[in-house]
Structures are given as C-alpha cells and as structure tokens.
Design a protein that fits this description.
Two copies of one chain form a homodimer. Chain A is an alpha/beta fold. Chain A has eleven helices and ten strands. The N and C termini of chain A lie far apart (about 60 Å).
Chain lengths: ~290, ~290
C-alpha cells in the first residue's frame, strides 16, 4: 500500500492507472477509521482494480462552532486498518495544499442541502460537495463509495455527480452498527460511558418507527412524536431533528407511501449523532387486509 | 471531423483517447463562430492531439432579460469553419440533456465574479463556471483554450481550475480584432451600420488610456474620465463600466503600477459589447525620467 500526500503526484498516478485501463475507486474519509469505513473499502475492493482511500479532515464542512479541531485523528492506526481491508493507496493531503489562500470556489447543490442536517449546519454540505469535487478531480476514479449512515450526503453527492456530469458511479454501502444497534461513527468516541448507553435510543426509535409503519400507521406526525418521546426519555439526549422524507427529493412526507427515509440527528452529550433507515411502505397494510 | 451530441458518447470517446495517451484540448464556444474562435482552435491544434470544440448556447449564463433566445446560431456554417481551422470533434449537446430537470448544482467563484461584468450580470459567471465544469467532466481535456476578449471569464475559470484541482492547463489566447480595432464578437451582428462605426470607440478609448499611461499618467480616475468622455460622444453608446483593475485579483486600482487590466462594457444600441487591454505600467515614467 502506498501513501500519497501531494495532489500532483496523485493525479499523475491516476493518469498512469487510467492509461493501463485500471478501474480506480475512491473511498473519501476523514480518518479515525472504524468498521464502517472498512466496509466501504471492501465494497470498493470488490468493484475496482485500485482502491484509493482519502483521509482528510475537511475544514470547509465544519461550522465555526463545530468540532473541527477536536475531531479524532490517528493516522498510523488508519494506515494499518486500511491496509488490512485491501486499500491500495491512501491519499493524505495537507490542508494548506487543499485550500491555498485565497480560496474562492465552491460547489453548491441547492434545495437538498437546506433540509435535515442543512438546517443546523447551513454551510456543511457546501463543504462536502466542494471537497468531493476536488477529490474526484485529483483521484480521477470511475467509482466512489459512500456510506448510507450519511444518507443526506449520499443523496447530495449523487445529485452533484449527475448535475455536473462526473463520469463516476456512486455506490452507497449499508450502515454498520455496533451489537446494540448504535451506528458506527468516529464521533462515538466523544460519548461518556453513560451517554454511550443512552445513544442506543437513536436506533431504537428508528425501529419503533418501522414497527409502527409495518403495523399500518401512515401519519408522519404520530410516528415522529413517538420517536421524540422515546428519545427525550434519555437525560443527555437533545433532538436536533426527526424527519420522514422522500428518499430522492428529501421533501417532508405527511401521509406515508412508497419508500421513505426516516432520519434523525440527536445531540447526546458532546457529539451530535445521526442515524437513519429506509422503509418501504406497503400499499396495503395488515390492518386493511384484515378488514376484507 | 466528428460531431458528437450525446454526453455519454463524448465521455466514452474521451476515455478511449486517454487510454491511447492522446492529449485532448477543449475550446468551449457558444457557436456562431468568427475568426476569434478559430484562433482558439488553432492554438489548441498546436498544443494537443485531439481538438474538441463544444458548441452550446448556455442558458444558465444569460440573465432573465438578456439575449439567450436571440443569440445568433448557425450550426452548419460553424461546422465548416471548425473543420477548416483543424477541429477534430464538435461536441454539440442538447440543452435538455445538459440541464435535465430538476437541475440543482452550481459552481461558484466568490469575489472575482462580483465586480466588472458581475455587477450588471449577477448570475452570469455562475452559469459560466457551471457549464465549464460540466464540459471538463464530459470532454476530459488536458488543456482548454479561452479568449482574452472575455478577460474576467478567463481569470474566473483559472481560479476555478486551481481551486477545484482540475488537472487542466488553461491557455488564454489574444483578442482578434476587425481592421478598425473592434474586438470580434458574435454579438457584433446585432449592430446597425451606424452603430458598427460607433462601436470602434471601445478600442479607441483603450488606446487613449494606454497612451496616457505611457505618457506618465498614473491616476485611474483621470484615465477613466477621459475614456468615458470619448465613448459618450457616440450617440448610441451607454457605458456599463470602465475599470482599471489588478490582473489577478480584479481589485480596482487607483494609483497605477505593475500590470493592470483596463476593461469596459458599453451598450451600443442593442448589444452590450466588452473589450479590454492589459497594460504594463513602467515604474519610472517618461516624465520622471526627464526630470533627472
């Protein structure tokens, strides 16, 4: 496995691989790798010749009062984990080279970035789409893998790729969870022992929502209310949002049908955690079937 | 010479050329070609293996009250001219395929797009950077050629390329002028015979400015005033702006030194015409020399 830190070197490497007709895949990360990231590498590994993982804590996607400085970092450990999962190249650039002063250009996706996480993090997605566009131009992949954990990010990136005609296939890989259901996240390290237990309520509330839908409930307000009540039983949990939205447009749904994304963000002590599930709402519910 | 109209076909062609280690150049145009465009093709021809000219009247760079609908078009004639100048591929996409609904993603360069033409055309450069980013992702060139006629555009594109790490060399080719000095432009066809004569005042005013600087004048206000007075002698000429700015930052200059861009936009009847020159301001002027 190779570590490349210079942008020009990465581009030259990509050009050479392209001439050799190699399929390049990109797994963009902010490092502090866990099993979730490694599952993305394995996904990439299975679908391409050369797997490039970028490790870059991207300042432009953090708000001014967010945890950019505190974000956990452990490059040496990341190298070992990436190697073990089958990564070929780690691209590990310097922030100075990625954002030289004066930096003026941003990629913005409208509408989809104004809802859900976009409400409390108004510049977050602009930072994400900008760094991802840059990484696409540096790594020149035919394929890139993102996690379903960041559901809104995956939808925004897909829209950017389509709109800007990036010739890149986007794969979205399933959420990897701890045994008790908590979605893996580098930010889970911020949790105290007590908060770590409380944090399982995010996934529990999603499971409750799914059960309600499976049992015939179609009113989003009722489901969201039940989720909120459950989460707010935890002393350190502060709900940022609980939403049920269309899986493509991210528009809020009131009477559920088709495929819906149930997404939430909850502050549990220091970290703001996110989680989501996609639920297929059946047209005929168990209840109406039984009435026939 | 080949004409390609489909985005996916152009991308496949580019991939094949890249595998063959061909150097691809891109000349983005809105068609209705004149000698100015052809000079860009010749520049590209001399520096690459395969010259791709895009012809696309890009709706997103026109304001709501601008001339998108009226913009002159003559595809068959363009094909002949492009061929004669040594173009290999014309990429001629359909607006529906370039901007499918809903279209949500834009590339924005801050600051540089707020001055000069950006004042009266606030969404123009966003449209330009977005279509150019798209064309880069579709044509996958190693080199792209733009005209100095659109000086601000060239500076904005260079900044976008640098900021977003597009691995593309940007060449800016000199302005091509009619015999009487008028900068070639597809929009010159809008001019009546009388206005066509009046339109030469743009270049004349730039020459006056250069002469003043060469003679030792260093105050931008005095130079701009003289230019305005000259232009406003023409009955159909309405000045949009006359500016003397830094060639990289586009910041307005008051006491001139180093290299400056003198740029102007003037409505002459229907069309709004632009022109510019770059002047190297010598540190020691003729006047101070003579005082020694």
């Amino acid at each position: 496995m190779k570590v490349i830190t210079k942008i020009a070197e990465m581009q030259k490497e990509a050009d050479q691989l392209r001439i050799q007709e190699k399929k390049i895949s990109l797994v963009p990360t902010m490092g502090y790798l866990h099993e979730g990231h490694l599952s993305l590498v394995r996904e990439a590994r299975a679908r391409s010749d050369v797997v490039v993982m970028s490790i870059f804590v991207n300042p432009s996607q953090f708000g001014p009062s967010e945890d950019f400085k505190d974000y956990p970092r452990d490059f040496n450990h990341d190298v070992e984990l990436a190697r073990s999962a089958g990564c070929d190249i780690i691209f590990y650039p310097d922030a100075q080279e990625v954002y030289p002063e004066p930096y003026l250009t941003y990629v913005e996706v409208e509408r989809l970035t104004k809802v859900l996480c976009g409400v409390s993090r108004p510049t977050h997605f602009r930072g994400v789409t900008t760094i991802v566009a840059k990484l696409f131009n540096i790594v020149k992949p035919q394929l890139a893998v993102f996690g379903q954990k960041d559901a809104q990010q995956a939808i925004v990136i897909k829209r950017m790729v389509k709109d800007l005609n990036y010739d890149i296939e986007i794969i979205v890989a399933p959420i990897i969870r701890e045994k008790d259901g908590l979605a893996m996240s580098s930010r889970n390290t911020y949790l105290t022992k007590a908060q770590r237990i409380q944090a399982t309520v995010l996934y529990q509330s999603l499971m409750v929502a799914k059960k309600m839908i499976d049992a015939g409930e179609r009113k989003a307000t009722i489901i969201k209310k039940r989720m909120r009540d459950l989460i707010e039983q935890q002393p350190d949990a502060i709900v940022d949002y609980i939403e049920i939205v269309d899986t493509t447009t991210l528009e809020s749904q009131t009477a559920l049908n088709g495929e819906v994304l149930i997404a939430l963000a909850v502050k549990v002590g220091k970290p703001r955690l996110i989680d989501n599930i996609i639920v297929r709402v059946l047209e005929r519910t168990i209840n109406t079937e039984s009435l026939k």
